[in-house]
Amino acid sequence: MLTVFWNLEHIVLAHFLEKETTINSQRYSETLTALKTRIKQIGIRNETLLQHNAMPHTRAATRDAIQRLDFSLLPHPPYSPDLLQVISTCSQN
User: Per-residue pLDDT tens for 59-82?
Assistant: First the structure.
């Protein structure tokens, strides 16, 4: 599996995981640590992550890793209002 982080100019980190590897909070934390190291190496400032909702059993550990590594998060709504309208329309039929 490939996880890619990029900015407007180039790919910042391409992180490969072996086929048998499961992405869990520990593995994701290691990826974020590698990302932070790479960001420092190439001199990017004001890094902001777009973090999608994590699964409930990994959310706390992921949030802790993001705070420990001092990333800022791009705020986004927990759901799409457009999708909510489609779901309510489908449930009425």
Answer: 778 888 888 988 887 776 665 555
